[in-house]
Structure to design on (266 residues):
């Protein structure tokens, strides 16, 4: 019996048709398993979606939907998800500029929201600050207060002003443009200046703080950092998507389409 089994085993191994038959059987089984596992897709309707649908119906129709109306709306939501997914699988969005534009905007909105969430992570933001510190240089800066002088105050200067307006992060260049080098150089910290003539009347200025040119601290730059981090995060995600595509342009055209030019359109 064993000899007979070995005989048939050797014939199967040597027979090309047997190889074809075995390979075909294996492929059929694999395809069946894959098809059975991938042919069923789940459409989930969450409680929050139901709540939102009720709110939308109430806002649009002026009253809450009945049980039958809500059931019809939920059926529409489920069918819309099913058929839109099927349309994408079949590539039916291709050639429809309006749909492509809508999908692009949805994707940009999605990655932008993720980037804003990441920008609230202090650890990530501080690491970004350390990497790009050179971006956050600042010129000589003043924090100051000013007071419009009455004619009496011009003639008889006082050390305490009843009313004053204060400004922060005023660059020295801006002050020089408005007041001139002589006036700016004469300003002293925590002292009211002598009367300064302006097109709007005489004023006195008191410098509260003077910060020489340098790099903004993490705290000072945090708002700008969050904006820059989010922008870079979005661009990095889109650049990663671009790498997966080959761009074919008309032969002989002088178009320039690359990662840089594409990101300029975001």
């Amino acid at each position: 019996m064993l000899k007979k089994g070995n005989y048939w085993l050797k014939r199967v191994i040597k027979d090309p048709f047997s190889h074809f038959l075995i390979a075909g059987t294996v492929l059929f089984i694999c395809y069946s398993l894959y098809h059975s596992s991938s042919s069923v897709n789940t459409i989930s309707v969450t409680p929050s979606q139901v709540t939102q649908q009720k709110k939308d119906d109430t806002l649009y129709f002026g009253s809450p939907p009945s049980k039958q109306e809500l059931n019809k709306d939920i059926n529409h939501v489920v069918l819309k998800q099913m058929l839109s997914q099927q349309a994408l699988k079949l590539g039916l969005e291709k050639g429809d500029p309006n749909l492509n534009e809508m999908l692009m905007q949805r994707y940009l909105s999605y990655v932008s929201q993720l980037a804003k969430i990441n920008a609230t992570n202090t650890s990530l933001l501080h690491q970004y600050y350390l990497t790009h510190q050179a971006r956050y240089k600042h010129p000589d800066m003043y924090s100051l207060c000013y007071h419009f002088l009455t004619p009496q105050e011009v003639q008889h200067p006082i050390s305490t002003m009843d009313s004053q307006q204060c400004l922060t992060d005023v660059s020295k260049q801006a002050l020089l443009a408005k007041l001139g080098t002589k006036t700016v150089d004469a300003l002293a910290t925590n002292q009211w200046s002598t009367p300064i003539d302006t097109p709007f009347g005489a004023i006195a200025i008191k410098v509260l703080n003077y910060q020489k040119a340098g790099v903004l601290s993490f705290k000072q730059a945090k708002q700008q950092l969050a904006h820059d981090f989010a922008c870079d995060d979005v661009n990095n995600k889109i650049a990663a998507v671009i790498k997966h595509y080959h761009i074919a342009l008309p032969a002989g055209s002088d178009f320039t389409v690359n990662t840089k030019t594409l990101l300029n359109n975001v």
